[in-house]
Specification:
Blueprint lengths: L1 E2 L3 H9 L5 E7 L5 E8 L24 E6 L5 E6 L3 E6 L2 E5 L3
Parallel strand pairs: 1-7
Antiparallel strand pairs: 2-3, 2-6, 3-4, 4-5, 6-7
Amino acid sequence: MKTRMTDDQKRALLDSFKGKIWSAEWVKKSGEVRKATCKHMIHSAFAGGHASTAQKSTVAHKTQYYTACDLNKGEKWINIDLHSLKHVKCGEIEVDFEDD
């Protein structure tokens, strides 16, 4: 069964996976379906991290995006579009989202 959630509810769900590995599937702007194995972002890597690894989020001001670390891409940061999020799984929790 598919679930309808607001972006804020989706964000809260993803935030609840802190410290765990989870997977997500969403549709990129290009129409490509993207899958990723993620872990929760570490805020210190954006602001207070080591100078060589510190990054600034380019979409922090856009609430439709959720920043996470993609384990399949060598732990690179990715931005998940919450508007087009289709599926998430973390342990026994698995949610399919309705299309907006």
